[in-house]
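To illustrate the input format used throughout this study, we show a single complete record. The first block contains the structure-token representation of the backbone; no residue identities are included at this stage. The design step must infer an amino acid for every position from geometry alone.
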């Protein structure tokens, strides 16, 4: 099996970058569990709700870099 994977890796690494990225995306997608329409619908509702809150000024925006910096500080090295 390792020989087959090593051979495959050599072939894949010889592909142009865009084709390697497409293959990587397809492989990752194939490993994801099937989506649940009810969960997808709840996420869509949550996203719409958060957008409404932002548009109404009922919540604050935070820069991603600030959020990650705070998380790094809280979680430590």
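Output of the design step:
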């Amino acid at each position: 099996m390792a020989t087959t994977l090593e051979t495959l890796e050599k072939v894949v690494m010889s592909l142009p970058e865009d084709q390697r990225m497409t293959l990587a995306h397809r492989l990752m997608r194939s490993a994801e569990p099937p989506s649940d329409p009810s969960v997808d619908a709840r996420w869509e509702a949550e996203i719409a709700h958060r957008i409404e809150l932002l548009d109404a000024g009922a919540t604050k925006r935070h820069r991603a870099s600030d959020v990650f910096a705070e998380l790094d500080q809280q979680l430590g090295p």
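Structural context for interpreting the output: The helical segments are 2-13, 17-31, 37-56, 64-75. The longest helix spans residues 37-56.
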